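[RESIDUES AND BACKBONE]
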Amino acid sequence: QVQLVESGGGSVRPGESLKLSCSVSGGTVVGSTMSWFRQAPGGFREFVAHIMWGDMKMTVYRDAVKGRFTISKDDAKNMIYLQMDNLKPEDTATYYCNMIPGDYWGQGTQVNVSS
């Protein structure tokens, strides 16, 4: 059974940084497209970033986070990360990781950005 577990969320002030982690068990990040989504209170779940399978590890980002967020993965540790710098209040949300194929989701980790 594939399980994804996010961690690393917290409460920070605008301009600060957080690094989210997503640990995968029962499956492998190698050969999978791994993504981060987020859902703000009262909002819809939205795409944040993904990193594709393969040696190139191509990445795609939501426009609002380009230049501030960096997605990466460690095949050996079977984990993905989201480095979030220069956080803004509008980044406040629950962040989820996703794995395709299979469309597996974690339970989410909360990020709060406020002064």
The CA atoms of residues 65 and 107 lie 22 Å apart. The two ends are 41 Å apart (CA to CA).
